[in-house]
Amino acid sequence: MTARSLDEDLEQGLADGAGPSPAVRRARAWLSRAAEPGSVSFWRFVEDAGPVEAVRRIRAGRAPDAVRALVGARAEQDASRADLLRAQRCGARLVVPEDDEWPALLLHGLTVAASAEPDDPRRQSPRTTAPVPPLALWVRGPSRLDEVAERSVAIVGARASTAYGEHVAGELGHQLGERGWTVVSGGAFGIDAAAHRGALAAGGSTVAVLACGVDRPYPAAHGALFHRLAEEGLLVSEWPPGAAPHKHRFLVRNRLIAGLTRGTVVVEAAARSGALATARRAQKLGRQVMVVPGPVTSAMSVGCHELLRDAELGAVLVASAAHVVQEVGRLGEDLADGPERASEPRDGLSDVACRVLDACPVRAGVSPERLAAIAACDVLDVLRVLPALELADLVEHTGSGWRLRRPETERGR
Amino acid sequence: MTARSLDEDLEQGLADGAGPSPAVRRARAWLSRAAEPGSVSFWRFVEDAGPVEAVRRIRAGRAPDAVRALVGARAEQDASRADLLRAQRCGARLVVPEDDEWPALLLHGLTVAASAEPDDPRRQSPRTTAPVPPLALWVRGPSRLDEVAERSVAIVGARASTAYGEHVAGELGHQLGERGWTVVSGGAFGIDAAAHRGALAAGGSTVAVLACGVDRPYPAAHGALFHRLAEEGLLVSEWPPGAAPHKHRFLVRNRLIAGLTRGTVVVEAAARSGALATARRAQKLGRQVMVVPGPVTSAMSVGCHELLRDAELGAVLVASAAHVVQEVGRLGEDLADGPERASEPRDGLSDVACRVLDACPVRAGVSPERLAAIAACDVLDVLRVLPALELADLVEHTGSGWRLRRPETERGR
User: Fold this and answer.
1) Residue B54: CB partners within 8 Å, gap ≥ 6?
2) Tens digit of pLDDT for each residue in B353-381?
3) CB within 8 Å of chain B, chain A residues 140-169
4) Is the whole model's pTM more than 0.95, yes or no?
5) Residue A409 has what DSSP assignment?
6) CATH class (in words) of the domain with range A345-412
7) Cβ contacts (< 8 Å) between B166 and chain A: which residues?
8) Average pLDDT for residues A103-130, to the nearest whole number?
9) For a FRET experiment, which of A69, A332, B236, B304 has its CA 20 to 30 Å from that of B2?
10) Global ipTM
11) What does the alpha-carbon distance between residue B311 and residue B307 come to, in Å, rounded to a whole number?
C-alpha cells in the first residue's frame, strides 16, 4: 500500500477508470467508516456516483442532504489508510463489489430488494431492517468469500440455548461440513458457537458475520473460537477494524447472514428472538427458511414452532443435515427428488424454472434481469431457480451472465 | 327386549317400515357379528336393501357373491339376541344409523368417500384401509355419541411413548377437556391412555374406540381406565360384545377414530407408526391433521416430523390445546382469526365457505350433496366448511338438512 493521501488516491482512481484499483478500495474503506451501513439512500448514492466520486462529493459537501446527514462530522476525518493497514496486520482484507471475490450472485437478492425501496428516505425501510447490499466487506481468513458463500447455509438461534439446541446445531454444522457446505452464523454464545464448532470439528468451512471489527471479535470469551475461524474459515464484517459491537449493529448485520447464504436454519428461538427476524428477512430475499423443532415444553423452541405454524412464511421443518441439503440443493420444489422420479433433468422442474431455462441463450450469457424479462417472471424468482438449474448442469455462468449448458455428449464431440 | 326369534323380529320390522324399530336394531346387531366391518360391497348391499331385508337375503342365500363370501357359515348362526342382552348387562347399547344418536354429520365424510369407491370389489380399497361407514356401533357409557362427537378431537400416537409424549398427550387431553372438547382415541398403552387420563382428570368427555367388544376392553391392564371411561365417557366398538382384539381389527378401527372427530392430533409416532396411517386417513376425509413436534433426537418423534415435512398432507404443527381448538374450531382458513380482523362474520370466510353459505336456503334445510351442487364444489368441501359456518352462527341444522341461521336481532322480533 502506498502512503499517498486519500485525495491523491482518489485522483489516481479516476484516472484508472473502473475496476478494483487502490482508489476504489480506499474509497470504500473510507465509506465503511464514514456511515453506518444499511441506508438505502446512501447505498444508492454510491451506486450512482461510483465509490470514488461518492467520497469526493461527500468530502466536498456536494452530496444530497440525506447522505450528508448520515456522515455528519466524519466527512472531514480520514482513517481509511490506517484501517486498511490495521486489517493487513491481522491478516484481513477489504473485499469490494469490484473484486472477483465479491459474492455477487447471492448478494444480488439484496440489490433487487433495495431497488424496490421507495425514493423518499422517509418512506424507506428503517436502517436496522432495510434490505440493502453492503458497500464493502472486511474479511479475515484464508477462504475466498464468493466460493464459500456459493454453497452455504446460515444456522441461527438463541444465545440462551439449551443442551438440546447446542447438540443439534453442532450436529448440523458437523454434517454440513462433511458434505462440503459452509456454515454461516454470528459469533454469539449458544447456537452460533455450537454450529461453528461442529463445522470446524468436521474440517468444514465456517463463516462468522460480525457486528464489529474483524480484529476485535465479540464476545471476548470466544477468542479461541474466533482465532480458529480466522485460521480455517472466515470472519466477515461491514464495520472497519476496531469498530465496537453496538446493539443496533447486530440487527443491521442480520440481513447479511440471510443474504450471504442459500437458506437459513433456525435451531432454537424463544418467542421474540432475533433469529425470527433473520428468518423472515431470508424469506423476503427468496431464500429457504428451515426450522428445527423441539419439545413443545421448551421455551427455547416456542419461536421455532411459531415459524413452522406461519403458513405464509413457508418454512420447512428440518431434522437433519440431509433435510437441509435437500432444501438448499434443489431449492424447494424446483428440482425433482431423484432419478426415479425424473427420467430427464427437465422433467422435475417447476413452471418458473422451465421458463427461466427456456429464456437462457445458447452462446453469450445474459443477466438475471434479462432472463426475468424473457421468462416473464420476477428477478427474485430467477435468482431462486438459477442455482438449482446450475446444480442440475442445465445452465452455466460465463462470467458475464447465464447461458444454457450443452449436454456432455455434445461437448465431447 | 322381547324373546321373539330373529325371523319374527325381522317380519315385525318390515311391517313397521323405516325407523329404529326393534327389527332394525336386531338386524344390525346380527350384521355386526355376521361380517367383519370395513367392506365397501357389504356396506353398499345393506344401504341398498335396508338392514332388515339385507339380513333376510343373506340368510336365504339370496345375497350377491361378494356379500355371501364375507359372511360364510355365519349366515346360519344367530347370536343377535344374546349380543343385545349381553350389551344390556354391561350397560351398553347398539346405536344404529336409524337412531337420533347416530353421529351422522361427522360420519358423512366416510359415506361420501365410500360412495366414490369403484363397483368392482376387486378394485375397491382393501378392507383394512377402505373408507366405509360402520353398520352399527356398540356404545357403553352415559354420554350421547352424536353430542360428544360434535366437538371432538382424536389424539393418537405411539404405544411405546416417551415421558415427554405422555406428558404432552395428558396436557392436551386435560386442556381440551377443560374447554369442553371431547377426546377420542384408542385404548392402547402410551399416548392413547395418557390422553384419556388427562381428559378424565379435567372432568372432560373422552371416548375410546375399540377393536374388540365393549364388555372386554383390551388391554386388560387398562381395566380401571376402561371402567372410568364407561362411567364418565364412552367405549365404542363396531364389534359385538365378546369380540377379540384381532390385529387387523385395529387397522379397520382406525378409520373410525379419524371419521368420528373434527381433526386428529398425532403426539408421538415412530417412522412407521400406525398413527401415521390414521393421520393420512383423516386428511382424506377432509379433517384437519395436527402434529405435535418433539426433539429431532427422539425416535418417537420421527414420524411426527415426517408428517410435518409432507407438504401435500397439509398438517399443522400444534404445541398446545389452544392451537388445536384454533384449527378444529375454525377448520383451517375457513374463518377469520377474530373480531379484530373481521368486522362481519362473512368477511373472513374462504371462497368455498362463502359459496356454501350462499347456497343455504332460508327455510327448509337441504342436504350437503344439494349444497355442493348449488355451490359448484365437492361434497367433502361442503362437509369441511359446514361445522365452521355453524360455529360462526351462520347456518343451522334443522334435522332434515342445513339452512341459513337468521341473525339474533331478526329472531328476537
Assistant:
1) B27, B31, B45, B46, B63
2) 877 887 887 777 888 888 887 777 888 88
3) 164, 167-168
4) no
5) H
6) mainly alpha
7) none
8) 91
9) B236
10) 0.75
11) 8
